[in-house]
């Protein structure tokens, strides 16, 4: 039987069933080829690749065990890789040079020569060396202190940019608990206004970390802060990993250090609604994954280094782009943010379980309590990177101690002071070291804590931290209060077009002679970080103060501060005494004139060792007295209702509602008691408010135990407070102004009687505002309302970051300003046009406003000027006033500096404390305005007693 075949015409498709068989056949063949090629069963392509790349594989594997560091030839370089063509050599003459060497003890008198981006010589530099260079710029610094550039180990500069805008807030990712593949470099904003401000504090190098929302937040990068001609983040990097700009790694030189951000405790637990247990499990999962990859790499490399190429046929080097950075951590070191003993114990166990070293614990508020735990960390004892006094903003920071740096150093644990910019501004990083020195950290360690120690920890001490490339010329000793750079030189390039050094006193050219706090440090350890803060003795009996240098008190009219000593008294010619009984000064002058008291058998004698009596300071600008721990709701008064944000319930007063801070007072908080022990005796607090309407502030004694104690409430109502500004969720500025206008012209309800007092000038209106545009509107509103009601309104501006732009207008309108913070920063758009002060501008806001006739007061230099996050900073008000004095000596003297933080505040907020009834503070060894004085007593006529410490 004959078979028949059907043929299709040329070009016509085969029948459908045949076409499907062909397609499936081709797909199967393609899959088979791909599968065989993938696993080396076809043509043995991987075996050939291994054969061809043996040298590269051996080099890569050998490189895994090489410790990061500079090449051997690095020290022989004659031109910096960061050298900018055309930079003139600089010859600095007659300097006092802190080198960073010999454990920070070495100080030289001599010269420095910078050329080709490097420091070429230090000490006695002869003409011969200078003659080899052309166009040398010579700078005679007349004995000024010169140090290497300051290094900030913990900064969010350029990832949390200033002014703060939604489009450049890149500090945290909220996409997972563990994100080691993220990189801060990828978010670095080169337009951050913070760069110039940070360099104005002498900081030349920063480690830029992701934020602390995640258990593992990503990789951190070291940058030099000077602007580059390329204007890119990459061009600012200092020794980034070799792979960063490509996949090839040069195995002929050692690898470079990498840095990974971790966070323990409350932050990741809060963000991801978990607990510490969840966070530690997240670590362990991640490190187990990294360990599996590392172990696979080591097994692979063991075969390669043994020459067992047959065993590696078809195998690629084990790696995973997402986890490669964490694998490197297992071969290197890590930076982590931890607070409490439990966190250190967790992380130390983690380091031993997965066998990696911890470079430093950051924040680390309780580290000083557990030095032995730190020493059990795998490989090395971690350094501690911490704050001087920033604390108690959350429970984890509650046991922080100002004595922590000295205690850690005494336990041979490396100490680093850090910023957490823009939390604590990196511009004032050296002040963190200065405060640590005040509380007992040795001078050499304090200076090293912000220069050589962080540089060494970063593995970059061959470039920074010592006299290598960057120098800072200071206007005073770097640890002196208010020390400010007159010039900062990065990579041989001066960063400021002109030096604006302010002439400092001779005493400022030496490290301060700080008090002895040994007993306080011992008590801190004895009481597990919470030592008693109450006075050691309170008496209404006779207390006699001797060896006094000066006595400052209110003038008789109560408007200022004056010296009560006659010329020659307190100078060694005539030694005065001051006698106090029942909290009142009953005699002062020569001992003979007060003999009826000096012979009293129960008189308490207090030797001030050249110290002083001065007015108790008055603080405003925080919620001190209304909270214990800012981030713990159960310890705070809460936030006042605001009629512009939501309808206020009728039962509370509706639109006429106005809350009083006196009703929410808390006494005996640790921040209040610490401030009291530092000379701040009266606190003024307005209700904590989120928006427009604040309420009525209260003045109260920081030394009282409860509200019913004699003198505990100084004045139950001080002023009416509002806030005006631009913020998400708020109505427009014009709406806020319209509301204020209506309040003043048509008062009603509970608030009405107080607004009537504002209108007739008996109660101040205090407006928290920073924008010069809004301040100008308020000046106009004041004139408008005064014209309609026929009386003068007493208006005070709080914040005032841009107030200097309207200094003349403010003076003419008799409007005072409480600068909060005293040293401004462009946190947001309303504070963009600040007066930065030297070396950025000729003078700062304090001096400028005073020079133009504006009454000025100081608030605390807290965190982002947030009142609820700044109660810890009240204790430093004395130093803020001293800083202002040292920075504006042509417009301030000691009397007017005291007034900035006492009588001026009282006048601007309507507090009536008559002369002779104010608190006096006794300091030993110095006064409140410097790092030499220690508060030993508070004299309170209002409370009828003397508190002795």
TrEMBL record:
GO terms of biological process kind: purine nucleobase catabolic process
Annotated InterPro entries: DHOase/Allantoinase_Hydrolase, Metal-dep_hydrolase_composite, Metal_Hydrolase
Listed GO CC annotations: cytoplasm
TM stretches of this protein: 24-43
Signal peptide annotation: none
Gene3D superfamilies: Metal-dependent hydrolases
Membrane found in the keyword field: yes
Keyword Cell cycle applies: no
Molecular function terms from GO: allantoinase activity
SUPFAM superfamilies registered for this protein in UniProt: Composite domain of metallo-dependent hydrolases, Metallo-dependent hydrolases
Keywords noted in UniProt: Membrane, Transmembrane, Transmembrane helix
Full protein name: Amidohydrolase-related domain-containing protein
Species this chain originates from: Postia placenta MAD-698-R-SB12
